[in-house]
Amino acid sequence: MDDHPLVRAGFRALIGDEPDLAVCGEASGFTEAMRLATDQHPDVVIVDLSLAEGSGLELVKHLHMRLPDVRLLVCSMHDESLFAERALKAGARGYINKQEATDHVVEAVHQVLRGEIYLSDAMTQRVLQAEGGVQLGSVEALTDRELEVFSLIGQGIGTSRIAEQLHLSVKTVESHREKIKKKLKLLSATELSRYATQWSLERN
């Protein structure tokens, strides 16, 4: 499930070349992905965190709840150190960065099909060594939804469009913005936009 046709075509070609694998469908947004996965009931679903419609992380949660036996592999350009653990907690069985996808997506699919977790070596060590909670003021203190809103703010997207993209009310997005400011110890909307933009640029 990816909002870029070229990316989906690349995955289709890589996976289709494997004698024991076959692609049974593809989607660009949340609703289409849920319908297709429910109809086809595939063994593995590859999910991007950025979709044309809806949130990839929410898609993982919904697919995991509705189809718990379907294995979910997240493939995204987003920072693995920040999103991989969230994806696993949401129900995914692995996380692969798009920059490494061409070389490792088939390996990742086979690994999750075997019932194993797929992460990069660096992320595996990070998970094993993780200890304690996060401190107030850290982006890691944000909830999944708050992080999605924060990421979209960093891309220069306004409140109304964020609400539309995430299927939320404007009031709910505004509430998330206030909570984000509090957790990150920011005093104004201007500080929030500046910090979110800087954070987004550092990860692209």
User: In DSSP terms, counting alpha (H) and pi (I) runs of 4 or more, how many helices?
Assistant: 10
Give the strand order, joined by hyphens, for the main sheet: 1-2-3
Which segments are poorly predicted (pLDDT under 50) over 5 or more consecutive residues? Answer: 131-136
The counted number of beta strands is: 3
Verbal overview:
About 3% of the residues have low confidence. Strand 2, helix 4 and strand 3 form a beta-alpha-beta unit. The protein is built from ten helices and three strands; from the N terminus they run H-H-E-H-E-H-E-H-H-H-H-H-H. Strands 1-2-3 form a three-stranded parallel sheet, sandwiched between helices. The chain has 204 residues and is mainly alpha-helical. 29% of the residues are buried.
List descriptors.
single chain, 204 residues, mainly alpha, three-stranded parallel beta sheet, 10 helices, 3 strands, 57% helix
Map the helices and strands:
Blueprint: H1 5-16, H2 30-40, E1 44-47, H3 56-66, E2 71-76, H4 80-90, E3 94-97, H5 98-113, H6 121-129, H7 144-154, H8 159-166, H9 170-183, H10 189-202
Helix pairs in contact: 2-3, 7-9, 7-10, 8-9
